[in-house]
Amino acid sequence: MVEAVAPVAEEEEAAVVEVAVREYDGGRDRDGVEEVERQCEVGSSGGSGKMCLFTDLLGDPLCRIRNSPAYLMLVAETATGTAGGGGAGGKKIIGLVRGCVKYVASGSTRAMDPIYTKVAYILGLRVSPTHRRRGVGKKLVERMEEWFRQKGAEYSYMATEQDNEASVRLFTDRCGYAKFRTPSVLVHPVYRHALGLSRRASIVRLEPRDAERLYRWHFAAVEFFPDDIDAVLSNTLSLGTFLAVPAGVTTRWDGDVEAFLASPPASWAVLSVWNCMDAFRLEVRGAPRAMRTAAGATRLVDRAAPWLGIPSIPNLFAPFGLYFLYGLGGAGPEAPRLVRALCRHAHNMARRGGCGVVATEVGERDPVRAGVPHWARLGAEDLWCIKRLADGYTHGTLGDWSKAEPGRSIFVDPREF
Predict the structure, then answer these.
(1) Which of 88, 171, 247, 408 is 20 to 30 Å from 120 at the Cα level?
(2) Is 286 left (phi over 0), alpha (psi -120 to 50) or beta?
């Protein structure tokens, strides 16, 4: 079962432990951080025989935040002994948290002009199983929030799975966060065979500058749309933006985005592809032998008779990569169908790239959600929680964003997945 990467938090505190929280030092902390990651994602559940998702950061603990405009990683270290990643009598890293700050859309004015707000994101909170329920997670969050305020962030938000009760309790009961949005992580396996593309849709690849124009035109007022979308689209991990229109429509605008924006077709859809595979790898551990055998059998059949188009389960029990689909959007009655065509195109890209799955995250009421092919058992229901950090608001007409009603769509930044 592939799950969204979520913070691992302690439950209610038992006894406070004396720790020092400081900035991550790549030269001396890498081994200690990797050990905490291993304990949280494998050790805490591996002994119970349950499946769990292991994340290999490929030797770069900052990989999931280093593409953000401003970022920081903090570690919690036992306050006694000699500095280092561990060892008898020495200081030991027992927790960590990552954070980043950027400007995103939080709504729009009556004239539909976007309102941008400086927000912070908490990512990958980890506390060693041996030091949970001692206030370590809360201390890490509070120190990260201090940095957020220094950077001028008005809000802080985080994401976890809805059924991660310990994480939800930590943030809502002890850290002052409120439940905010409930998007879904949709995951589709990459088959051994390529998927056929619809003849009823034409797919055009957009240059980054044209993609930026289209995104700012369509998504500018969508919650969490990043003001630096140009940096996202031009990043080396972004593999392209693709626009789908009904077959034959392209002759009306011939790839001219300005002409498209001036007179868009009745139906269209767009998405971009982000290469998470070069940032981190995933692996499902603890799966029963019968499940592994059954999954392997589907691959054998698919390899022997690819023309049958039989769905096959990739080897998720060894390290695998994923492509993340972001910026899903569109308009018109055929938008879901066109999104499906784009997702099939992305699947074939992921197949050529050697990925195990493609994934995306969409709002619960997003109209294009119906067009995203996915396997329900591989996905997850997320919960985003938010906290107001500033005393005032940049835009008085908006009021308190944390109390705003959700829109139909939400923009998920691939740099934070």
Answers:
(1) 408
(2) left
